[in-house]
Amino acid sequence: NMRNYFQGGKVKHWCQDPYVRGAFAFLTPFQETELVEKLEAPISNIHFIGEYTSFVHGWVEGALSSAIRAAEAITTEPGTVVPTNGIQTISINFYEFLSIAVMLIR
């Protein structure tokens, strides 16, 4: 059961935030090449994911690819032990994925 391996996280309900009135990231010319690399960079053990951290911003593909990027970065850090016993498949509810901002914490 994946719940046994989950150590913590944070859910942000963007629709309940009175200061948020946007949608997907809309970068101006040259911002993509200047900012995406900085946006996807972890700070210590905090990895940021979401369509705004991807070159495919504005689309579900960008959100998913950023999640895969962060998961790969976390699991390949020196000293990281990834438990695999009993894990066969991972199922994602894409409707929940679209409405939740996830901060991965190792």
Describe this structure as you would to a colleague.
This protein has 106 residues and is of the alpha+beta class. It has a single domain (2-105), classed as Arc Repressor Mutant, subunit A. The chain has helices at residues 31-39, 60-75, 94-99, and strands at residues 11-12, 46-48, 101-105. The longest helix has 16 residues, at 60-75. The model is unreliable at 94-106 (pLDDT under 50). 29% of the residues lie in helices and 9% in strands. The chain contains three helices and three strands.
Jot down its keywords:
single chain, 106 residues, alpha+beta, Arc Repressor Mutant, subunit A, 3 helices, 29% helix, disordered C terminus
Q: Could you give a short description of this structure?
A:
This protein has 106 residues and is an alpha+beta fold.
Count of helices?
A: 3
Q: Which overall shape is indicated by the principal axes computed on the Cα atoms?
A: globular
What is the CATH domain class? Answer: Mainly Alpha
What structural class should be given to the helix and strand makeup?
A: alpha+beta
